[in-house]
Structures are given as structure tokens and as C-alpha cells.
Design brief:
The protein is α+β, with helices and mostly antiparallel strands. The protein has 10 helices and 20 strands. The structure holds adenosine-5'-diphosphate and magnesium ion.
């Protein structure tokens, strides 16, 4: 079989990633069970567990140094998990802890692209096929198919050397080289990091389309929260060598589990207060800015204990609707283009940020000026109850 090129009208029918993937459809393409990796006594990855379904676009998201690449490299086989702790890495149900990278059925795209500078684009892409002993005629067809797939014209670019390509074109070559061997799982480590914003957005859409059309499982490493939200079926947010939360983009953004997740994905207001009463799960919370109502959710809500709550700026309104209202003073209005961010000072000296749609400041400027007194309003159900970050 071959990868269906973009121009093929038959591409609408769902193609299979590979025969291997089709015959051995395990429940999970990738499964980590309490996997640990330490370097010289320091944990790069601490006993993490997660599973990725076949065909999923799964992102590992987190700040630099949190262990994303180490996790990806353990999937690839470039790193082995510590034997201590007994963690397991499985691919398509098969234990692979000790398999070498070439013994695993994977493709990988690195941020640095890692192209051979002295080989033509076509030879770079053919490399994995040559290693596997694929015949010459077959190689030519498959290289052309892979170049079509990443929208690189074979006639124009096939005989060029990588130094004569733009960053975006090199990125496409690296992607074609990984896809040409038709791996059931594709690993990508910050592959768009070196591209400018416009090209990055374009490539995000193309990668997502490839994932959907080819049915290949994508494991995507990024530190860019917007990128992860845009592309992923599910996201694992990593913090300090651990997984803080796994969920769909909406779950991660709308129900962050910890302050770290709420802060890392988007912006948030944090309100920590004392539970003064609990009537059937509706909490009266005492806060320096004033009293407000919050929902207990699933956590315990004993009167007299503290609750940690987060509130997205776009869920707050100035003199708007909601079952909560607190007095506040306008500190300043920040122009962001699509949105305006209004910073408010509350009683007790706290700050809240309200995001509001920009209706056009030249034609319909907002009426708020620094120093004005307003009411900040919101609905109790729009608050997110948080657990504490692990120590
Ligand atoms: P990320 O990709 O999230 O930026 P990494 O997985 O590359 O993070 O690194 C996680 C931690 O492990 C970092 O503190 C890093 O310095 C350390 N680390 C990664 N690779 C090695 C290595 N080969 N030797 C020693 N320390 C390493
Ligand atoms: Mg990294």
C-alpha cells in the first residue's frame, strides 16, 4: 500500500496507516505505566502513566524542562526507562522497554529537522526506505507520494540540497521523510518551533489534516498552549516531571485540575477564600474582595476550610449579569485586538482581569476610564474548583 497523495480524489475514504497497525489494533497505540527516568539522581520523568488511542492526536504540553522530550524519546527508544520502579512502555500492546529505536514501528520529526545536508531532498526522504531494502522503482513512487502529501513539488525540490531550502520547506522534507515509511505512530518534537507565526499556523492545520486522513497516531511535543489546544484530540499537561492533567482541549481549558494547569493554559483569575456556609453544594465564600457564591463540585467543602477557585477573564463581566457581584475600580484597559483586557482592583487590593470583545474602539469606544467604580459580575457555575499543586 502507499500513502494517498493530497491530490488523490479517493483521499476522502479513510486510508489505513499501515498493515501492521491494522492487523494488531490494540486498545492503545502507546501506553506508559509508572514510567520513570532519572539522570544522575535527578528525575526527568517521575512515574508517569498515560495511554494514547490509535489514530489520536495527542500532545505533551508543558514548560521547558518539564520532561516532554524525555517522554517522547522513551516512546522512540532513544532513552530507556529506569528499571527501578518497574515502569512499562507498550506500543500497540507490546512491551518495548528494551527494544532499540529501529525495532519499533515509528517515525520521528525533530525540531532541528536533522536532514543530511549533502543529500538531495529526494535522497533524504528515500533514506528510511533504502535502509529497509525497498526496491528502486518503488522508492521513487513512494518519495513522490510523500512529497505530494506535504505539498512539496517533486520536480522543483527533489534534486535540491537542504541548505537551498527555507525553514518551512526543510520542515516539510523532515515530515515527508518520517511519513514515507508509513509508520503507525508519528512522534514530533516541537516541529514548528523554528517557523514564523503565519507558516506555523498553516502547518498546524496541515499536520492535523494529515493525522485525520492517514489515521496515524500523532504524539506531539509543544510548549505552546495555543498550538496544543488547536491541534490535539487530547493533551497531557506536564509540570516538573509529572503529568498534571490529561484531557481534551475543552476539559483542560474549562476544567483545569490545578493552579498550574489553569495558569499555563490561557489566563485566569485566582480566588482563594474561606467557606462560610454550604447549602446543598452552593458555597458562600469569604474573600477580601467580598462574599461570593461558588459551587462545591466534587471536592470536599467543609465550612471553615479554604477553597481554591479559578475564573477565566472572559467569564467575568463589568456591570453585566451573574449571581455574583463585587465592587471594583478600573485600573487600566489593555488593547489586544480581538479582545480588550480590563484590569480591575478589588476591595482588599486584589486584581481581577476581565476580557471583553473589542467592538471597535474607534467607532464604539468603551466607556470605562481608570479610576471608575464598577461592579464585576459572574455566574457561580463559571468558577473552576482547583486542587492544590503537588508539593
Ligand atoms: P522538555 O523537553 O520538556 O524541555 P526534557 O525532557 O528535555 O524537557 O528534560 C527534562 C529534564 O531532564 C531537564 O531538567 C533536562 O535538563 C534533563 N535532561 C534531559 N536529557 C538529559 C540528559 N541526556 N542528561 C542529563 N539530563 C537530561
Ligand atoms: Mg524538549
Amino acid at each position: 500500500m502507499s500513502i494517498t497523495p493530497l491530490s488523490d480524489p479517493g483521499a476522502a475514504s479513510p486510508p489505513q496507516a499501515s498493515e501492521a497497525a491494522a492487523s494488531a489494533r490494540a486498545d492503545y497505540a502507546v501506553e506508559f505505566t509508572r514510567v520513570r527516568k532519572t539522570y544522575g539522581g535527578r528525575a526527568a520523568v517521575r512515574d508517569i502513566s498515560f495511554s494514547i488511542r490509535p489514530g489520536e492526536f495527542f500532545s505533551l504540553l508543558g514548560p521547558s524542562g518539564c520532561g516532554k522530550s524525555t517522554t517522547l524519546r522513551m516512546i522512540a527508544g532513544f532513552e530507556q526507562p529506569d528499571t527501578e520502579g518497574g515502569g512499562e512502555v507498550r506500543l500497540n500492546g507490546k512491551l518495548v522497554n528494551h527494544l532499540r529505536p529501529y525495532e519499533r514501528d515509528l517515525g520521528m520529526v525533530f525540531q532541528s529537522y536533522a536532514l543530511f545536508p549533502h543529500l538531495t531532498v529526494a535522497r533524504n526522504i528515500a533514506f528510511g526506505l533504502e535502509q529497509r531494502g525497498v526496491g528502486k522503482a518503488d522508492i521513487a513512487t513512494r518519495v513522490r507520494g510523500a512529497m505530494d502529501l506535504v505539498q512539496l513539488d517533486a520536480k522543483t525540490f527533489g534534486e535540491r540540497l537542504p541548505p537551498a531550502l527555507s525553514g518551512g520547506q526543510r520542515q516539510r522534507v523532515a515530515l515527508a521523510r518520517a511519513l514515507v515509511v508509513e509508520p503507525p505512530i508519528l512522534l514530533l518534537d516541537e516541529p514548528l518551533g523554528a517557523l514564523d507565526l503565519k507558516l506555523r499556523k498553516e502547518m498546524q492545520q496541515e499536520l492535523k489534516d494529515l493525522n485525520t486522513r492517514l489515521g496515524i497516531t500523532f504524539v506531539y511535543v509543544t510548549h505552546d498552549q495555543e498550538e496544543a489546544l488547536t491541534m490535539s484530540d487530547r493533551i497531557a499537561v506536564m509540570a516538573d516531571a509529572r503529568i498534571a492533567q490529561v484531557g481534551t482541549p475543552a476539559e483542560i481549558y474549562e476544567r483545569p485540575r490545578t493552579p498550574f494547569v489553569a495558569r499555563f493554559i490561557g489566563e485566569s483569575n485566582f480566588l482563594e477564600g474561606l467557606i462560610e456556609s454550604n447549602e446543598g453544594g452552593r458555597l458562600s465564600v469569604c474573600h477580601p474582595a467580598g462574599m461570593f457564591t461558588a459551587l462545591a463540585g466534587t471536592g470536599s467543602a467543609t465550612v471553615g476550610t479554604r477553597v481554591h477557585l479559578a475564573l477565566r477573564p472572559e467569564r467575568l463581566h463589568i456591570d453585566g449579569e451573574g449571581d455574583n457581584a463585587l465592587p471594583a475600580r478600573i485600573a487600566h484597559v489593555i488593547y489586544r485586538g480581538e479582545m480588550l483586557h480590563v484590569r480591575l482592583t478589588t476591595a482588599g487590593g486584589g486584581e481581577l482581569t476581565v476580557a471583553t470583545r473589542n467592538e471597535g474602539q474607534l467607532r464604539r469606544p468603551v466607556a470605562w476610564n481608570p479610576g471608575d467604580t464598577v461592579r464585576v459580575t459572574w455566574f457561580a457555575e463559571d468558577m473552576q474548583r482547583l486542587e492544590e499543586d503537588p508539593a
